[in-house]
Amino acid sequence: MSPLLDPTLQHWLDLVGIFVFAISGALLAVRKNLDVFGIAVLAEVTGLGGGLFRDVVIGAVPPAAFTDIGYFHAPLIATALVFFLHPHVERINKAVMVFDAAGLGLFCVTGTVKAHEYGLGLPASAVLGLATAAGGGVLRDVLANEVPSLLRWDRDLYAVPAIIGATAAALLLHLDALDAVTMTLAAALAFVFRLLALRFGWRAPRAWHRRSEATESEL
Amino acid sequence: MSPLLDPTLQHWLDLVGIFVFAISGALLAVRKNLDVFGIAVLAEVTGLGGGLFRDVVIGAVPPAAFTDIGYFHAPLIATALVFFLHPHVERINKAVMVFDAAGLGLFCVTGTVKAHEYGLGLPASAVLGLATAAGGGVLRDVLANEVPSLLRWDRDLYAVPAIIGATAAALLLHLDALDAVTMTLAAALAFVFRLLALRFGWRAPRAWHRRSEATESEL
Amino acid sequence: MSPLLDPTLQHWLDLVGIFVFAISGALLAVRKNLDVFGIAVLAEVTGLGGGLFRDVVIGAVPPAAFTDIGYFHAPLIATALVFFLHPHVERINKAVMVFDAAGLGLFCVTGTVKAHEYGLGLPASAVLGLATAAGGGVLRDVLANEVPSLLRWDRDLYAVPAIIGATAAALLLHLDALDAVTMTLAAALAFVFRLLALRFGWRAPRAWHRRSEATESEL
Lengths: 219, 219, 219
Hints:
Oligomer: homotrimer
Order of helices and strands of chain A: HHHHHHHHH
Structural class of chain A: mainly alpha
Radius of gyration of chain A: 17 Å
Number of strands of chain A: 0
Shape of chain A: globular
Strand content of chain A: under 5%
Number of helices of chain A: 9
C-alpha cells in the first residue's frame, strides 16, 4: 500500500496481520458452533473486513482484498489450522493475542497512510486507520450475533491503542516525517500499548452515573 | 449538499441532525452498558451511518462524513454530553425525540435531493432519502445487537414519515418545483407526521394472520 | 448484466431470483413479528443485498438495484403476498425453497460473470459470485438479529452449491467457453446440488474436536 516500506516486507506484514485477525474470527466461529464454511466466512470477514471497508469508503475499488489473491488465502489457512487443531490454538490463545496486537498496530498505521494517499484529510485518515484495524473484529462479532467486543465495557482496551497508533501516523504525515522507521515506531507504540492493556486489564470508563449502579447489579 | 438552501444554513442543519441522531446512539450505548468508546462509536455510526451508506451507493466517495470534519465532531460532543449527563439527557428524552424527528425530516429530503444530483432516478432517490434518514438508526441497533427498532411492530411509525418526506421531495423534483421553501415544507411534513405518530402511538400493521394470534400470545 | 444470455430473458430471471429471495426475507420478518415496513425492508434487503454488495465492491455505482426500478418492485410484490397470505406461503415452503435454490444457482453464476466483466481476477470473481448469491440472506439474518443461517452447522448446505456454481462459471470464463448453454449448466449444477442437500439433509462438518463434545451437549 505504502511505498515507505519495502513492498515485499509490507506485503508479508499485511499477510501476517490478516492471518492473525482471521485466527480470532475462526476461533469465535468454533465457539459459536458454526460449520466449516461459517469458520471460513468469519475468518475472511475478520481478516479482510477492516481494509475492505476502508477501500470502499475511499473509493479504492476493487479493494485490495479482491485484487491480491494472497489476502484471500491467508484466512483459509487460518481456517484449516483452527478446524483441525482448535484445542491447541485455544491453548496458545496468549500468543494469538500478541499477534493480534501486532496486526492492530500494523493496520492502524498502514490504514491511515493509505487513506491519506487517497486524498483524505489527516483526522479522517486517522479515523479510517482505526476502522481498518478494528473494523474486521466488529463485523466478526456482528455476524456471530454478539455485541462487538470493541464496544464492551468488560473487555480490555482495544480502540485506544489503535487510536494512538493512527494519531501518531497522522502526526507524522503532518510533520512530513513519515518513513519506514517512524512508521514502525508508530505501529510499535500501538502494539505495546495494547499488550500493556491486556497485561494490566486496562478498561475504559462507562458513563458517569452508570458506574455506581453497575457495582450493585453486576456483582 | 444542495445549492437550494443557503449553504451555511444547510451545513448547520446537517450538524444539528447528525448531533441529535448521535444522542440517540449514545443513549442506547449507555443502556447497553458500553464503555466510553462504545458510546462514541454508536454516536458516530448513528449520526453518520445513513449519509455514509447513501454516499457509498451513489459513488460520492470519499463520503461527506469523511471530508467535513465538523460532521465527525458533532457525535463526539453528543458522546461527551451523554457520558457526563446521561440521567439528565434521559429525563429530556421527549425533547430528544422532537429533535430526532427534525433530523428525520431534514435528512429524508436532503438525502433524496443529493441522490438525484448524482444521477439516480426519482424513485431510487426517494429510497436513498429514506436510507439516509433511517440508515444510521438501523446500524446503531445492529451494532447494539438488537432488532432494528425501525422494523419492529411495537414501536411508533418511523419509516412512514421518512417515506412521505422523501416522496414529497421526489415529487417536487419531478415538478421542477424544488426550492428552499418547498424543501422546508417537505421536511416539515415528515417532521409533523413523526410527531403525530409519537403523540398518538401510531403503529404499522403486522401480517394479517399474525394479529389474531398475537393478541393471545403477547397479552 | 451479461450479454451472454438474451437480455430480456436475463432480466426476467434476475427478477424471479430477487422475488424468491425476497419471499424468504418476508417470511422471516413475519416469524420475527415485524410490522409491514419491517417485512418490506427485509424483503428488499434479502432480494437486493447480495447484488448491492457486489456492485459497491466492484465499483459499479450506482448499483443495478437502484437503476432498474423493477428490481425494487419485485420485493414489494413479495411483501404484499406474504403480508396477506403468509400462512399459505408457509404451507408452500417447499416450493419456496426450490425457487430459492434456483435463485442461488442463477446469482452465483451471473455474479461471477459480472465481477469478471469489471476486471476482477477469476478467483475474486467467484468469491463475489458467492457473495451475490448468499449476501442477501446474510444481511437478512443480521437485521433479524440471528446468526446467519449460511454459517450455522444445523442448516443444510447453502454455501457449497453456490461455491460450486461460481467455480464452474470461473472455470468456463478461464476456458473461454462461457455461453448461454454452459452458463445455464453451471447454474443448474448449483441448483441441483442445493436440492440434493435439502433432500438428504447434507451438512458441513464442524471443527474436529467439537463434534464429540456436541453429541453430548446437544442431544
